[in-house]
Amino acid sequence: MTQHLAPSRPARLARYSSLVISLTLGTVLDAATARATSADPEVQELIRLVKQQSKQIHDLQSRLAKVEKHTTPHTVATQTAQNAVKPPSVARTNTPTLHSGPVEPVAFGGDTPQLAAQTQTTYPLLAAAPGSYGAVSNMPSGSAPVMGVASQIPTSNRSTTIGGLVLKWGKGLPQITTPDNAYSFRMRGRILADYGSGFGSRYPEHNISRTVMRAARIGVEGNAHQLSWVLEGDYSNNQLSVMSAFVTWSDKMAGHLVEYSLGNKFNERGFDGSTGSDQTVFLDRDGVANTLLPVKGWYGMGGAFKIFGKDWHVATQITGNDVNTINQTNNIRDDITYMLRTHYIPWRNETSLLHLGAWGFYEDVKPATSFSQNIRLLARTDDAFALQFGPTMPIANSLAGGLELFGIWKSAWFLAEGGVRHIKLRDTAPLPSTNMAYAGASGTEKAVSVQTGIFLTGETPNYFAHTGQWATPRILHPMTADGWGGWELAARLDWIDASSLPTGGRAWTATVGVNWYLLSFARIMLNYTHADVTNRTGKYIGSNSGNIIGVRSAVTF
User: Fold this and answer.
1) Across 370-381, average pLDDT
2) How far is CA 12 from CA 6, 7, 61, 325, in A?
3) Are strands 239-253 and 463-464 parallel, antiparallel or unpaired?
4) What would the DSSP string read from start to end of 8-47?
5) 3-class secondary structure, 151
6) Closest CA to 507 of 517, 496, 519
7) What's the pLDDT tens digit per position in 147-206?
8) pLDDT tens string 17-66
9) What is the dihedral of CA 461, 466, 468, 473, to 10 degrees?
10) Are 326 and 440 a contacting pair, CB within 8 Å?
11) Which of 102, 419, 118 is nearest to 289 (CA)?
C-alpha cells in the first residue's frame, strides 16, 4: 500500500515564502526598472538592496533544501505528533518540589541557584537527610529572609505569575516576589493559644486552670537584593510589644555568607534559647534557656554579625535593652550585653548527625534599686510556681557560658546542654536599701537540661543546620494530603541550682510531651510536667512540688 505524506511544515513554509518573495521582488524590480532612467539615487539604492537580499534568500533556500533532503518522513511525523500533544505553557505550578540531600549552596536574591538534587515528588514523601534544608519547611523565624536557604512546603506550595510578579503560597499567606527573587515581600506571624491545669501543690494558688494567649504575632518581612528587613508586633499577656524589628545586609566574605544586622533582634544563647517560641519541642524552653538569661531579656537593640560555613557558624551581638523597655528616670543607660555563640557539625551522613555548640555572654548592668529572678518551672499558665530569689542588691555584672551536644539518628534526636552564670552584686544602691547585707556579694547559678524525642511517623527531626537550632519539620503525610499528620514523642529533665546566691534555691523538673503536626506549620501539643522546688525567699518558702497538664494549638505562617 502506497503511503502519501503531506509536505513537511518547513517545506510548505519555504515554498510559500519563496512564492511571496518572488512576486514581491518582481513587482519592485519592474517598478524600479521603469524609473531607472530618471537616475534617482534613492531608486538606485533600492535596486542594490533588493538584489542583495535576493541573493541572501537564495542562499537560505539552498541550505533549507539540504536539510529537507536528510529529514525522513518518520522524523517529520514524530516531530509533528510531539508538537500536537505538547501542553501549553501555564503560569500556575501545581507540582511541589522537594530539595533534599546534602547542604544546598546559599544564594542571594537574584542569583540562579544550582541545586545538587531537585526532583518532582508526590506523596508520600521520603524523609530528607538530617541537617539538609530539605528536612525543614522554612527558615527559623528569627532569620533574615535573604539568606536563600528556605525550603518549599510540599503540602501547599503554589505559585502564580501576575503582571510580571510571582505570587507564592506557602505557610498560609502569600509571598510576592520578582521572577529572579531579587525583591520579595510577605506577611508573617504566629498564633499560640495555651491551656493549663495545675494540681498537686501544697499552695492552693498553684492548683489552677487557665488559658493564655502565648503569642498573637503579626509582621512583615522583605528583601531588596542583599538588604532584608523584618518588623513584627505581638499581643500576649494582655500587652502589645514590638518583637523583631531589624535590617540585615548579607554579603560574602572569603567564600562564606556573612550578615550584618541592626535593630531589635532575638538573641542567640544556647540551643533552646536561640529558638523561637513557635518552634521549640515543648510548651516552654528548657531550664538552661530560662535560667541563664541576661537582665535585658530575650531581645535587644543593637548590632549583630554572623558568618556561616558549610558545617558551622559564629554569631556575635552587642545590644542594649529591647525597644519596649521604659526607663523610669531620665538619662539612665541601657544594660549592655556582649554575646557570642558558635556551632560545628563534625560528622553527618544520610541518617545521622552530630552537633557541638558553645555560647557565652557578659553583661554590664545599669544601676537599679534591687534584683530578683523568677524561673518558671511548669508553664506560662502557672507563673506562680517558680524558683524565686531576691529581691537583693542590684547586679553589677554577670558572666555566663554553656555547651551544647545534639544528635540525630534517623527519626530520633537527643539534646544535652548546660551552663553557668556568675553574678556580681553591687556594693551600693542608688536608693536606700534594706538589702545592704548582700552588698558586694556574688554567686553562681547552674542549669542542665537533657531531652530526647522521636517521630513515630518517620520524619527527620526538625533541626536547622545552618544556624544550629530547632526549626519546622517537613511532614511526610500532612492532613491536607489525606494523611495522618506527623506524630512526635519527647521527654525532658531539667536541673537548676542557684543556692550559692543570696536567697537562691534549687529545683528540678520532668516533662513528657506529644506533638501532633497536622501539617508543617500547624500542630497541637500536649505536655505533662512534674516539678520540685526549694525556695528560701518569696511568697512560697520551703520545699514544694506540683504538676501541670498543658495543651497548645499553634499555627505559624
Assistant:
1) 91
2) 9, 6, 12, 79
3) unpaired
4) PHHHHHHHHHHHHHHHHHHHHHHHHHHTGGGT-HHHHHHH
5) coil
6) 496
7) 655 555 554 456 677 777 887 776 667 788 888 878 889 888 999 999 999 999 999 999
8) 554 445 444 544 454 444 444 456 666 767 777 777 777 776 776 666 66
9) -20
10) no
11) 419
Q: In sequence order, what are the residues at sequence separation of 6 or more whose Cβ sits closer than 8 angstroms to the Cβ of residue 27?
A: none
Question: HSE of 144 in the Cβ direction (CA atoms, 13 Å)?
Answer: 32
Tell me the three cell numbers of residue 471.
Answer: 526549626
User: CB 253: neighbour CB atoms within 10 A?
Assistant: 8
Three cell numbers written together for 191:
498564633
Element (H, E) at 535: strand 522-535
**Average pLDDT of the chain?**
81
Single out the residue of 335, 351, 336 nearest to residue 412, CA to CA: 351
Is the separation of the CB atoms in 395 and 443 below 8 Å?
Answer: no
Beta bridge partners of 495: 448, 508
In whole angstroms, what is the distance from residue 414 CA to residue 406 CA?
A: 6
Residue 331 C-alpha cell reads as: 538619662
How many whole angstroms separate alpha carbon 175 and alpha carbon 197? 39
C-alpha cell at 144: 533574615
Asked if residue 129 lies in contact with residue 351, where contact means CB atoms within 8 angstroms, the answer is yes
Task: Cell numbers for 356, please give them.
Answer: 557541638
Amino acid at residue number 373: Q
| Domains recognised in the chain with CATH numbers | 136-325+332-556 (2.40.160.10)
Residue corresponding to grid cell 505550578: 93
C-alpha cell at 256: 562564606
Q: Are 57 and 15 in contact (CB under 8 A)?
A: no
Percent over 90 (pLDDT), the chain: 53
Cell representation of residue 109: 536574591
For the segment 217-222, the average pLDDT, to the nearest whole number, is 92
